[in-house]
From TrEMBL:
Pfam families documented for this protein: HTH_1, LysR_substrate
One of the record's GO molecular function terms: DNA-binding transcription factor activity
Protein name: Transcriptional regulator, LysR family
Native source organism of the sequence: Jonesia denitrificans (strain ATCC 14870 / DSM 20603 / BCRC 15368 / CIP 55.134 / JCM 11481 / NBRC 15587 / NCTC 10816 / Prevot 55134)
Domain of life: Bacteria
The entry's keywords: DNA-binding, Transcription, Transcription regulation
Family listed: Belongs to the LysR transcriptional regulatory family.
Length: 296
């Protein structure tokens, strides 16, 4: 593979860095963590063999090579965008999207808003369920594309990692841990956990995390919705582990010190199901806007 092809996944970073002139601004534009932008630039420097960053006092700015390559990258991306617009203007049809319960609060609404803006003639049917129910819908052909946590069986399903979601500890504002800036697995000892029921994707992720941390938790209640869990936590009935989002004021979110307190979100299709033109446009759109994966 030649150098140009190896650069393709990082072209949005290169174009944004050349335009903004700053690593921080590039991260903001692309909704990426700053370290991920820095790694992308370092990876491209290794491919092209020249420096793309140079020091300007305490700041890092694009080198001449970065500005020239970034301009070319921006032009190429604009041309691809224009071509996509041209070929999708006449696209119509329905795409069925299935997603896990916990993704319906903010992730899926943002995604659908972006898709309807890009493809106004395409309609979207939404199906919500547990992770096993999502995969079953894809397998049976009731859904074209799925969004779940944790990659499924690669033999049956094709998946793309599109986002990483941080998991945090949620406690009531009066809980002794509420004053902590971070927590570790040891802080869970002796606590009553309020979790989703078995079979739901987030519960599987949390059970795996707790097992890897060596935590043997007491589960006080099992629910079906994150909002129910958080409400019970706010009432002081226990603690829970949830994705970092905006929750009621009577709950305090505390990050874990463990780097693995995350879960990957993936886009999934069934390998044995042929994609329609409309569903292919959806997956292409997600690949374009969420590759490399964003941090939620």
């Amino acid at each position: 593979m030649d150098r140009a092809h190896r650069l393709l996944p990082d072209l949005p970073v290169l174009a944004a860095f050349a335009e903004t002139g700053q690593v921080t601004a590039t991260a903001d534009v692309l909704r990426m963590p700053q370290p991920q932008v820095s790694r992308s630039l370092a990876r491209m420097e290794g491919i092209v063999g020249v420096a793309l960053r140079e020091r300007d006092g305490r700041h890092v700015r694009p080198s001449r090579a970065a500005r020239e390559l970034g301009a070319a990258a921006a032009k190429a991306l604009d041309q691809v965008g224009a071509a996509l617009t041209a070929v999708t203007q006449d696209v119509s049809g329905d795409v069925s999207i299935v997603f896990q319960h916990s993704l319906g609060e903010s992730f899926i609404p943002r995604l659908v808003r972006s898709l309807t803006a890009a493809y106004p003639s395409v309609t979207f049917t939404l199906i919500q369920g547990s992770r096993p129910e999502c995969l079953a819908a894809l397998d049976a052909g009731r859904a074209d594309v799925g969004f779940v946590a944790i990659p499924p069986d690669p033999v049956t399903y094709s998946h793309t990692h599109i986002a990483t979601e941080e998991l945090v500890l949620a406690v009531s504002r009066t809980h002794p841990l509420a004053s902590h800036t971070t927590v570790t697995s040891g802080d869970l000892n002796g606590e009553s956990l309020i979790l989703l029921r078995h079979g739901m994707g987030l519960r599987t992720t949390i059970d795996t995390l707790l097992a890897s941390w060596g935590v043997h938790a007491t589960v006080a209640f099992e629910g079906q919705e994150i909002t129910t869990l958080v409400g019970l936590v706010g009432a002081g009935l226990g603690i829970t582990i949830v994705p970092r989002r905006t929750y009621p004021d009577d709950v305090t979110l505390i990050p874990f010190r463990h780097d693995d307190a995350t879960r990957p979100l993936v886009m999934v299709t069934a390998r044995h199901r042929a994609a329609t033109r409309a569903s292919q446009l959806l997956t292409d759109h997600v690949h374009t806007t969420m590759t490399p994966p964003i941090r939620l």
